[in-house]
Amino acid sequence: MTDNRPIGVFDSGVGGLSILIELKKLLPKENFVFFADQKNVPYGEKGKKELVGFMYKVVDYLIAEQDIKMFVIACNTATCYTIKELRAGYKLPIVGTEPAIKPAAKRTRSGIIAVISTPATSKSKTVGRLIREFAKDVDVINIGCKNLENTVEKGSIDNPEVKKLLAKYLNGVKNSNADCLVLGCTHYPFLKSTIGKMLGPKIKLIDSGLAIARRTRFLLKKKANGKGSAIYFTTGDSRKFEKVASKLLKRKVVAKKVIL
Ligand code: DGL
Predict the structure, then answer these.
(1) What span, in angstroms and rounded, lies between the C-alpha atoms of 30 and 190?
(2) 124: CA distance to ligand 1 center in Å?
């Protein structure tokens, strides 16, 4: 039995495209609807109540207008603050994205890992729980990075502005004995090469993309059997989304604006 209805993939902005890349690799026959809530980006500087309100509107839209069969929250911040409410409110399967603290804690040899994420994610209960559950014997350097996602939103992934911000947040990591850096925001995998050059090969950069794609595949009850398509929506400026998304995905992206 097949089900060709699309999978909804959500982020506050373009960061979730880093998850979409992995989803498309692992599930090439699935159709995807990518939704960016750019009217409200950055989520990383907002509180729970506001985020839950945004997310209900997004999921309502994706179910009513796009008939999605599954929902992937390709955003650590939205996952940390809203997944419980969304799972209680909707019947469809929901996959969340959490900082990859567990694999990093398993992998470290020095016993020190660092985690970078949005200010909201870094101080969330979810990150506290992940550290308690999976990294209690490891030292965790937990860094909230204000503004870093905003540079990726502008398409800046290796210019002086982003390098300056990265230096500010990563100097401490560079001078520590950390051997793993968790990229706890879906915007950051697009900075991998810049971060790698800055920190050198001894520090492994770990993101959640592949794990999320595997989890999505595991939870898919009925798979699609088509050519695999992706359509893109934003609550922000669709031309701006097209420009940045085309740069990040290295192919032409066309997007539509949605008013929620
Ligand atoms: N990409 C999102 C995440 O993984 C957050 C970016 C934002 O602050 O809106 O947390």
Answers:
(1) 23
(2) 13
Determine the distance separating the centroid of ligand 1 and the alpha carbon of 6, expressed in angstroms: 23
Angle between helix 125-134 and 76-89 (nearest 10): 100
Q: What is the pLDDT of residues 115-127, one digit of tens each?
A: 999 999 999 999 9
Give dist(CA 8, CA 69) in Å, integer.
8
- CA 116 to CA 81: how far, in whole Å? 17
Pairing type for strands 32-36 and 230-234 reads parallel
Strands, E assignment, 173-237: 180-183, 204-206, 230-234
Q: Is the CB of 12 under 6 A from ligand 1?
A: yes
Tokens representing 182? 């968790």
| pTM (predicted TM-score) | 0.98
Q: Exposed (0-12), middle (13-18) or buried (19+): which is 34, by Cβ within 10 Å?
A: buried
